[in-house]
Amino acid sequence: MDDRGLAGDGSIAREGALDSVPAVFAPVVTAAQAHIAAALASDRLHSVYLYGSVPRGSAIPGVSDLDMLIALRDEPTDADLATVRAIEADLDRDFPQIRGAGILLDSTRSLLSERERHDDGFFVACLCTPLLGEDLARYLPRYRPTSRLARDTNGDLAAMLVRWSARAAGSTTARERTALTRTLARRIVRTGFTLIMPAWGGWTSDLYRSAALFGHYYPGRSRQMQITAATARTPTTDPEVISMLIDDLGPWLAAEYTAVHGEKMSHP
Question: Which Gene3D superfamilies match (predicted)?
């Protein structure tokens, strides 16, 4: 993989690997795999994946989350969601080296659908590390840093800002505001990066590098994006930062994104 995150054919290389998991996080991964295999019936469980800093090898004990995706053969039920929440709680309780466990749940049908081909499909094929079961990436294409990929992954920022604004208005505790700013900041940095991704011609999941690359193309917004990347790592309850994200940088970025790449089509 070259410095721009590309394979030899120019497609985006898959990031992360099981042998890149830091030793301190290996027991967490092993326990998570065991919990999932025991809790979900084999005739329903298709595959399990790691993603984020743990399989990339950049996780920091006590700071990083354990992020996972479970693909089921059928659509997830309320019982499945309850099972996953219980697994998350067990991992949070037993392993202080993670700030928290976050497990996404989806069906193979959705992940492989045409409407998700350049969103969730890209996520599985390029950003997820197989942990258990058959790898769905074998059924997905090789992805390149195109405008279509940008549009389908992050072209819905304007709609997300409406939800985040309502969430900010209803946040009454420091914990709620901290969680909101982390979500906001991570998404805005990634949207800023995918805005310039086709022009740069590569891929990175590193938030600080994403912010720096964005700044080369939009120097007038560089400082704001640097603050946003720092907020993604160390969330804040500062109302000025939240306002900057929701009322200033966010709306500007959404408008610029639509002008450059178009808006992601909504699906029922």
Answer: Beta Polymerase, domain 2
In single-letter form, the type of residue at position 225 comes to: M
Cα-based angle 232, 236, 241 (whole degrees, multiple of 5) = 85
Six-digit token pair at 239? 């109302």
Residues 73, 39 contacting (CB under 8 angstroms)? no
State residue 105 phi and psi, 5-degree precision.
-130, 130
